Amino acid sequence: MKRTGIIxxxxxxGLAAPMVRGQCNLxxxxxxxxxxxxxxxxxxxxAQIPWDPDGDGPDPEVLVVAGYMESANGVPAKWVAxxxxxxxxxxxxxxxxxxxxxxxxxxxxxxxxxxxxSGSTPCAKIARWSGTGWQAVAGSITAxxxxxxxxxxxxxxxxxxxxxxxxxxxxxxxxxxxxxxxxWHSCGWSSAGPGVGFNSLASYGGQxxxxxTFxxxxxxxDYIARYNGSTWSGVGGGVQGQVKALHVIDGKLVAAxxxxxxxxxxxxxxxxxxxxxxxxxxxxxxxxxxLGTFNGKLVVGGNFSHAGGAPxxxxxxxxxxxxxxxxxxxVGTVAxxxxxxxxxxYNGQxxxxxxxxxxxxxxxxxxxxxxxxxxxxxxxxxxGAIHVWCWHDxxxxxxxxFTEAGGTYTTRIARKTPAGWEPLGxxxxxxxxxxxxxxxxxxAGGAFSGGTxxxxxxxxxxxxxxTFGAGxxxxxxxxxxxxxxxxxDLIIGGTFTTAGGSAANRIVKWNGSGFAPMGExxxxxxxxxxxxDxxxxxxxxxxxxGTTTLNGVARWNGSAWVPVGGGLGMYRSVYALGxxxxxxxxxxxxxxxxxxxxxxxxxxxxxxGPTSVWGACFPAVSTFHEHExxxxxxxTFxxxxxxxxxxRWNGSAWxxLQGGVDGSVRALTTDDDGALVVGGLxxxxxxxxxxxxxxxxxxxxxGCPADFDGSGFVDTDDFTAFVIAFEAGDxxxxxxxxGFVDTDDFTAFVLAxxxxx
Length: 757
Known about the structure:
By secondary structure, this protein is mainly β. The chain starts with a helix and ends with a helix.
């Protein structure tokens, strides 16, 4: 059927459709894996290159990073991955060994290194990305186990590979070879002499320059040589040590490495002679490993601690004319033992790849980006469990067992800012279980003591940390699990038996200057949850207050703790309390009734939905939060098709958050962008998306597809706009994302339009 025929067949029905509000596609957000890359204790990012996978197609450019790494931002990587500015993605099966360099040749991505296979596909030492996987390159490279391709360079229409190897395809090449897109060729390099390997290549002045470990003084090839397509020649007498990096900038060739003449670890060649710009103390005090360009300036990375005589650890920028006058300057604040091995510029920012380490006080884990002011992580995850969220003075705080938050060193507590997470002073010495906003301060309770502050399980923050009371008896003598504010009082619950040195059976109040008991407290167990919403409720593993039986949940009547209905069973544990549709709700372990979730209608308890959803392996609900009119529950449970560890209750049934999360959920809140924020101890959401201890659930960032004109409504204007684009064959009408505008796109749009999104 012709395109116009399809339109005629459906347009009447489409234009008759009523206007509806564009519905939101709920989904998990990406980008919350642990920042950077990881592979045990030896992570290195040796190569980076921007790459547009589909050339002039609609897909955006990505940054390819490679080296020695097994994961990137929590995503399995296997020594190579792509970064799109928000998240990392796998690139096929990756490799079984290190990747040392990347190149784009004839629009295709090539990788060189010490690997042998990609998955089960042989592709020794060099591989080409086919669009679906890594493939061998004309027979690939023949080399020993620790030998391979160290450098790739496109020059004069060919791809050159260099390193330490004997053959390329069937051709004996002696460490450097030329690939014309079909066949490998020798470059005529002699393998005679000690140490003949190559580290780096550059195309400059119509010739190919190669630097490495070779020292052939009789030929004038001291660690650097140039190739004119038929013969090799020396470069101004060479340099006096290994060349590790070559880079062209400002019409000059910069060489760097382990040499001290000419220049200290870095020198400039103008095509005729070596320049003395970086001679003596104007250079570095140790080896340079990498060179790059950022905002038109030369950036240098390596093992040095000084540049031009000034302290500048691992990274420096030349503020001047290359080969002329200028000075070295720091690139943000650089700290830690982090030699820099690679650079790239992507989306206007400088990316640096390095060995573990930290930059600017941030644990960036192998790779970071510089926005012109400060270093940023690649990823927003935490490295340990989040136990609680708290809004205080309009800002979101997280606390738990973590020591890093979104690429920033924090110690169990952090504050969210527009620039990312930031620490609260030196943090606290142990896990934080509870937070509360009280009388203009932020209060933290948990299982911490000692340190400089000397706080016992309870502390408050007003720009610096303070204890509750003075001396060794400050705070409470055991863990705090829950906090609540009631009028002028701060209510504190936990496992403690003293507060400020006086008896306090698992619950106490602080009036701003001192502790006071609350009735007889609880005679055993622990307080695990508090709710103050006009009434004050406590939940936990306690059974009684004095002689009053409570069975896990109690209400404060102003002078004593009293039962709530008949409670939720002896020796049961209530971990969470909340309110939904006017009813008190409780979450916990083996509650009676409800197993994991129960509700109280003012006279009796009943199950909150069917108990069958919770699974059978020690299920428990640990937290509640009302969000967008629904009650969300998090904990440790498996619900079959409903997913794991987090669910939503609409008043009549439990619903899924796609596949849920793969570990326990301890904390839920609503972020300032309207999304649900989930905290706990987990690594992925929806079974596939890396999201380490923090996750966000909300409207799909891609919006509502049927809202074609972006008005916020799905109405006849969207239908008309789509028809116009479709008739014109405009790429925006490629609704199913196949790359073609055809009848399938029209069908897909109509289905989405009729569904309201």
